[in-house]
Amino acid sequence: MKNLKILFVEDLLTDVEIAQREISKEGIKFEHKVVDTEEEFKKALTEFRPDLIISDYSMPKFDGMRALKITRSRIDYIPLIILTGSMNEETAVTCMKAGADDYVIKEKIRRLPFAVKEVLEKHLTHKAKKQALQDLNKSEKKYRLLVRNLNEGLMQVANNDRILYVNQALCDIFGYREDELIGKFGYKTLFLSVDHDFIKEKNSLRSEIPYEKYEIKGRKKSGEIIWLNISGSAVKNDNGDVVGSVGLLTDITERKRAEEAMKASEIKYRSLAENTSDLIVVIDLQGTITYISRSIEEETGFKEDEVIGKNIKTLLTEDSGKFALNILQERLVGKKYKSTFEVSLIDKTGQIIPFECGTSSISEKGKLKGFQIVARNITERKLVENKIREKDIQFRKLSKNVPDLIFQFTRRTDGRYCVPIASEGIKNIFGCMPEDVIDDFSPIAKVLHPEDQARVINDIEYSAKHLSNFTCEFRVQIPGRPDQWILSNSTPEKLPDGSITWYGFNANITERKLIEEKIEKSLIEKNILLKELYHRTKNNMQVIASMLKLQARHLGNKQLHNSYQEVITKINSMALVHQKLYEAQDLSSINLKEFISEVARNLQKSYRIKGTNIELKFNLQKVFVNIDTAIPLSLVITELISNVFKHAFPKGGKGIIKLNLFEDNEKKVVLELADNGVGIAQNLNLRKSASMGLQNVFTLIEFQMNGEISYLSKNGLLWRISFQHDVKKVRI
Fold first, then answer.
1. What does 187-216 look like in DSSP terms, one character per residue?
2. In this predicted structure, what is the pLDDT of residue 619?
3. Among 316, 280, 318, which residue's Cα sits nearest to residue 296?
4. What is the mean pLDDT of residues 621-642?
5. Longest CA–CA separation in the chain, Å
6. What is the CA angle 673-677-683, rounded to 5?
7. If you placed Cys at 545, which of 173, 571, 580, 649 could pair as Cys (CB 3.0 to 4.6 Å)?
8. Burial of 187: CB neighbours in 10 Å, binned 0-12, 13-18, 19+
9. Alpha carbon separation from 40 to 6, 35, 45, 248, 426 (Å, rounded)
C-alpha cells in the first residue's frame, strides 16, 4: 500500500515499535504518527489526515472508545482497529457495535498486518460501492430532471396508442394538464383527424422501423394548429419485444413560419433583384460568381450564363480585382473593411465603367458561405464630380488674388462646423490653409478673439435656427500679427439631410474700424464744441434780452415799452431752444413736451399771471424735433400764448389754457392750443389782421415749416397746427 498514513493512539512506544515492525514485515509501506491525548488526537485528524487509526483500548489519559467516538462523529470515514493487551468477548462486541472495524490482542500481534489489509480492502470496497450508489442516484436524478425539464415534449404510448407518460414540456406545448392526457389516445387528442391513420401506422411499424423522424401538424387544447418535429423510437421489454413507442416532440411552428416568410422573402428578393437598376452579384468564398441579376446585360453587355461560374476578377480591371478581393479577404479574417468602395468593370466592348459597391455576408447555420455585392453605376456621378473639380480649380484661380475670404460654411446635423470650400483669402483672414478646415472648424475657432467667441457662435446658431442672413463683425488674434477686425456676411440654406450651409465672404475691415474710431473721436470733440456754441448763443441772447429790458425801463411810452417786452419774450423763447439743445444727448433734437410746458410757464411768470387765475393744462406726448423746426415753432407758441394772456381774459378774469401735442395717423405732429376766454368776433379774419405777430405766425407755419394752421372761435379760441417732421433728419 503506497502513501498509507497510520495514526497510533498509544502511550507505550515499545508497543508502537512492535506494531510497526509487524506491519512492515508484510511489505506494507506507510508513514505514521503517535498520540496519547485527546487534543493531540483531534489535531492529528485535521493535520496528519490518517488513512487508518490503530488505538490502544485503555490508556491513563485517553482510551480507544473515546477515540472511536470522535472518529465516527466526523463526516469522512476512517477505519479504526482496537489494539489491546486483553479483551473479553463482551468488550469486543461493544467495540464492534461502537463502530470499530476490527480488534487485535497484543499477544497475537502477528495478526495485525492481516487485519490492516482486510480492514483497508473492506473500506475500499465499501467506499467504491458507496460512490457507485451515489453516482447511480445522481444519474437517476439527472435523468428525471432532464426528462422533466426538457424543452422538447416527451410522450410514451402503449401498443394500443394510449398515453402512458408525458413530461411538463409536452403539456406546455399543447396546453393540457398531465391528468388530461394519461390514458387517452394520443393520435386522437393531439393530432388532426386527417393524420390519425398516419400516426397509427407509424406506431404499429415500430418493430420494423425502430426509429424515424418526421414533421406533422398538431392541435393545441385551444384549437390552435401548430407544427411539430417528432423523433419516434420503439420501447422494448426485457425479452426484446416492442411494447410501445416513445416520441420526442419539438414545436417548430416559428421555424415553419420563418421558412414560409423566407420563401416569400426570396420571391420578393428575386423580383427586386431582377427589376432593380443596381447590379446584384453573389459570390462564394473563392470569389466565384454563383448568382448575378439580369441588369448585368444592360450594364456590361454580358449575359447571365456568360459570367455565372467565373471568378469576379474576370469582370474587373486588374487593380480593381486585387482591391476587391483584398477587402473580401480582410472580411474573412474578421478585419474592419470599408462599407462602400469603388471598382472599375470592363464591359463586353472593353469599355471601363465605374461602380460603387457595398457588401454583406451570406451565412448558413452560423458559417460564412459567401458575399452579396450590390453595385451601382456611378458614371454620371463621376462626370459631375469631374465638372465640380474643374469648377473648383476655376474658383481657386479666380479667388487666388482676392485678399478676402469666399467660403461655404456648414453646420452638420450633429452640431459640428466645417468649411468645405474656402478661397486662398483664408490665409489672410484666419491664418490657416483651405484644407485645414474642410472637416474641422477648430483652426478658425482658436483665433477668434476670446471676447467675441460666444457672440459669433450665438449669431451662427440664431441664423441656423431662423435661416436668416448672417452678418457679424468680430476680431481675430493670429499669432505674430496685430488684432484685426473681420466682417462676415453670408446667406444660409437648409440641405435635405438637415445640415445648414452658408455661402458668403469675410473681409478685413480693420482700416475701416480705425477710421470709424477717428470719426467717432472727432464727433465727440465737435459735440463738445457745439454744446459750448449753443450755451454761448443762449447766454448772448439772454444778454441782449437783459439789455432791452434795461432800455425799456427808461421809455416813457407805454406802447413802446410793451413792444420791447414782446421782443424780450421772443428772445427768451429762442434762448430756451438753445438751452434745451445744450442739455440734449444728441445735440440735434428737442423734446417738444418739455419745451412747450417750460415756455408756457415762463410766459405765465413773465405776464405775472397767477395759476389760480389762468390755469395751464397739458396733454403732451413726447415728440422730438430738430432746431430748424424748434426755433420757428418757439416764436409761434410764444405769440399765441402771449395773446391769450393779453386778450382772452380781460379785467383779470379766470380761465383755462389747454395745450395738446401728439402725432396723428399720418405721422404728422399736431399742436392744439385752446382757451375758454372771450374769443374773437365772428366776422374777424385773423389772416388779415393788422397784428404783425399773427402775420408772423401764419408765415412761419405755412412757409417756413410747410405746415398747416387753422383756428376756431367757439367758447373761446382754438388754434390747430400740424406739420410733417422727419425725425431721422439730423442737423449739427
1. HHHHB-GGGHHHHHHHHHTTTT--EEEEEE
2. 94
3. 280
4. 82
5. 179
6. 90
7. 571
8. buried
9. 14, 6, 9, 61, 94
Can you give the pLDDT at residue 387?
75
Note the pLDDT of residue 476: 92
Residue 413 lies in a domain: yes
Q: Give the side-chain half-sphere CA count within 13 A for 316.
A: 21
- Domain containing 601 — which CATH number? 3.30.565.10
Residue 467 sits in the same domain as residue 555: no
Q: Note whether residue 729 is domain-resident.
A: no
HEC readout, 247-312: EEEEECHHHHHHHHHHHHHHHHHHHHHHHCCCEEEEEECCCEEEEECCHHHHHHCCCHHHHCCCEH
As given in the structure block, the three cell numbers for residue 103 are 480488534
pLDDT digits (tens, 9 = 90+) for 262-276: 666 555 556 555 556
Same domain, 17 and 97: yes
Q: Which residue has the higher pLDDT, 335 or 585?
A: 335
What per-residue confidence (pLDDT) applies to 57? Answer: 87
Class of residue 356 by CB neighbours under 10 A (exposed 0-12, middle 13-18, buried 19+): middle
Whether residues 602 and 686 fall in one domain? yes
Mean pLDDT for the stretch of residues 303-319: 88
Q: Retrieve residue 89's grid coordinates.
A: 468477548
- Is it the case that residue 136 has pLDDT exceeding 60? no
**Domain match, 114 and 243 both:** no
The answer for residues whose C-beta is within 8 angstroms of residue 55's C-beta and 6 or more apart is 8, 9, 10, 64, 67, 68, 80, 81, 82, 83
Q: How far apart are CA 676 and CA 459, in angstroms?
A: 59
Residue 661 predicted with pLDDT over 90: yes
57 is in which domain, residue-wise?
4-130
Q: What is the pLDDT of residue 487?
A: 92
**Has residue 319 been placed in a domain?**
yes
Give helix 112-149 / helix 13-25 axis angle, nearest 10°.
70
pLDDT at 370: 84
Parallel, antiparallel, or unpaired: how do β-strands 484-494 and 470-476 relate?
A: antiparallel
Predicted local confidence at residue 369, as pLDDT: 83
517 inside domain? no
* Residue 400 pLDDT greater than 80, yes or no: no
Please tell me whether residues 555 and 704 are part of one structural domain. Answer: yes
Cell of 682: 365772428
| Number of domains observed in the structure of the chain | 5
- The crossing angle, in degrees rounded to 10, of helices 510-553 and 558-583 is 160
Do 193 and 247 share a domain, yes or no?
Answer: yes
pLDDT by residue (tens digit) across 705-723?
Answer: 899 999 998 889 999 999 9
What's 460's domain CATH number?
3.30.450.20
Q: Are residues 95 and 68 located together in one domain of the fold?
A: yes
- What is the predicted pLDDT for the residue at 564? 54
